[in-house]
Amino acid sequence: MTEVSTGLGTGRASVSAVLDFAWTAGEFTATEAMAGTSLTRSTTIDAIDTLVTAEVLRELPNARAIGDYRSGRPARRFALAADLGVVMGIDAGDTHLAVTVADLLDRTLVHHRVEVDPAQSADDRRATILQHLAAARDEAGVPAERVLAVCAGVAAPVNRDGISPPHPDGFWERTNPGLAEALRDWAPVVEVKNDAQLAAIAEGTLGVAVDCRDYVALLASERFGGGVVVDGHVLHGAHGGVGEGVVFDHIIGVGSAVGLRYALEEQARGAVADGEAPADGALGRLVAGGPVDPRLVLTLAASGDPDALPVAERVGATLARVVGVLGSMYDPARVIICGAVAESIEPVLAAARRILPDELHLPAPEILASTLGAEVVSAGAIATARRAARERAVPRLAEQRLTA
């Protein structure tokens, strides 16, 4: 995994402080920067001038030039340069690939999501990812040198060097087909992270955990995997395996790391096959129609359908056991159900909330549905890339320009 130093060094702490202030300040004056950084006025002005020289800050037209000047000396106004560069995020799942290009602050420039063949070889998967990454960059009209940071999320544990350990069936090697090396020349900073950890970062940045220091973001659609945050820190582990879902293969009452999407389909089919739900009822007709869309099962349950409600109850009991394990291991205040299934999961959550207090001795965590939908990993990848650009790539860029 490639990384750069902060670049500006300890001798330029004031420049770093002003740059950090400028990142979220929008347009600002030296007086506002001085108040925001607690630096002296002369030090603040020197730091601003340094960043203007490096073309990291832009000096804007003053009040006289734009017609707002009335009396006195107009204040100089500054803003972060809009053309510094972009960041890119990748969500490389088992059956999908999403690529995002975004600016450094808050705007998405390009976002594409496609289905991919889970039987692809590692070589083919890597080529597919690089192809879509290049296509997204080209569509955004961004030259290669303006990509400041790239973050990829994969459905595998990832160590601090961006490498996944071997999997008994080769799954982790396929979902992370050497991306740290493959992306090395794409940006000054490249991060490869576990997808559930990125979901946790997304929830803490712009989701339902913004104000929470202890939570688990549980990716639950395809397979269970948790991004764990304790005392405000995302837990990682020696191999990036904190929250890995294989533990649920060994939990009585769960028995598998397979996610809620498949649990809902299995329970719906089982209810019809056992005669619990009549074949001519709404659930029966849904099952007879071919592949079962879990969202339709949940819609029926939410409407009070007497056949779908028991399905939601049983899946809710399974989820309560999963959350109980997470609650006993990590003591979170919240467990956030993430992924596409979260958009309609409330009937399952209602059942899980009733059952959960009996599953652990600690106070039960709050169970919430994510509001970020299927793009939660992409959101976490972009948030991580933006932070990497802010803390490492842009300061290094400023240093390079100043010493050129």
Describe the structure.
With 404 residues, the chain is an alpha/beta fold. It is built from 13 helices and 13 strands. The protein has helices spanning 13-25, 30-37, 41-53, 122-140, 171-175, 179-182, 195-206, 260-273, 282-288, 294-302, 308-330, 346-355, 376-403; strands at 28-29, 57-60, 77-80, 86-92, 96-102, 108-115, 147-154, 189-194, 215-219, 225-230, 233-234, 334-338, 366-369. A five-stranded mixed beta sheet has the order 6-5-4-7-8, with helices on both faces. A hairpin with a 5-residue loop joins strand 5 and strand 6 (108-115). Helix 2 packs across helix 3. It is elongated and about 80 Å long. The two termini are 26 Å apart. Mean pLDDT is 91; it is low at 3-7.
How is the secondary structure organized here?
Blueprint: H1 13-25, E1 28-29, H2 30-37, H3 41-53, E2 57-60, E3 77-80, E4 86-92, E5 96-102, E6 108-115, H4 122-140, E7 147-154, H5 171-175, H6 179-182, E8 189-194, H7 195-206, E9 215-219, E10 225-230, E11 233-234, H8 260-273, H9 282-288, H10 294-302, H11 308-330, E12 334-338, H12 346-355, E13 366-369, H13 376-403
Helix pairs in contact: 1-2, 1-3, 2-3, 7-13, 8-10, 8-11, 10-11, 11-12
Quick summary of this structure?
With 404 residues, the chain is an alpha/beta fold.
Number of strands: 13
Discrete helix count: 13
Specify the structural class: alpha/beta
Average pLDDT works out at 91
In percent, how much strand structure appears in the residues?
A: 15-25%
Radius of gyration: 25 Å
